[in-house]
Amino acid sequence: TCVVDGDTIWLEGTKIRIADIDAPEISKPGCEAERLAGERATARLTQWLNAGAFEVHASPDGRDTDRYGRKLRILSRGGESIGGMLVAEGLAHEWGGGKRGWCG
Q1: What is the dihedral of CA 4, 37, 26, 103, to 10 degrees?
Q2: What would the pLDDT profile of 13-64 be if each residue is shown by its tens digit?
Q3: Are the C-beta atoms of residues 11 and 82 closer than 8 Å to each other?
Q4: Fewer CB within 10 Å, N side or C side of the chain?
Q5: Are the CB atoms for 88 and 34 separated by under 8 Å?
């Protein structure tokens, strides 16, 4: 179990993509600003996951996996989505089916 980046984790052998957000890339960022934002999102997700038990829910739009085979899930604690929290903190965008840039 580990955090891959700001919107992807491994949980008990299953690769999960957080379905309600798009976080900045760290493996192939478009610019230095995106890499730095991706590192902040990854650190915040790690902090949140390590803070205690959380729930894993099916994607509200009914999708089970993405094109890379990752399970699409919503992570929450106490009714609050980690995706919504990352968006509120400026560390992710709401998922809209397309990429939005992090570079200027």
Answers
A1: 150
A2: 999 999 999 999 999 999 999 999 999 999 999 999 999 999 999 999 999 9
A3: no
A4: C
A5: no
